[in-house]
Amino acid sequence: MLLLLLCVWTVIRFSGSASPKIFQNPLFIAKFPGQPVELDCALDGTSNPNLYWYRQDASGMLELLLYSVVTGSVENNGYKNFTAERPEDLKFKLKIKSLLASHTAVYYCAWSKTQ
């Protein structure tokens, strides 16, 4: 059986001396193909951010998977096995319905300030 390892890293956008903090959970996941996965992202120290989920595969290519500019609304960038929820202003959950070998990557949660 093939065991997939997903790594989650945090991307922080610095703005000023009191930078907001971003937290991802879990940091590492090992699952078998076909299993579901959920990755949580939470921010502290800001409000009304734009939130993003990216992945970087073994080739080094960085892909934008999903993003949200307002609570309750998520835009998918064309990846049918990936969904996300933004139930609160500072929380953004990535879901993979059924893992494939091609999902092996480093996943990044990122944010930017709303203009």
From TrEMBL:
GO biological process, one term: cell surface receptor signaling pathway
Cleaved signal peptide residues: 1-17
Record has Signal as a keyword: yes
Location of the Ig-like domain: 20-115
Keyword Ribosomal protein: no
Key words of the record: Immunity, Signal
Superkingdom of the organism of origin: Eukaryota
Example of a GO cellular component annotation carried by this entry: plasma membrane
Residue ranges crossing the lipid bilayer per the database entry: none
Protein's recorded name: T cell receptor beta variable 30
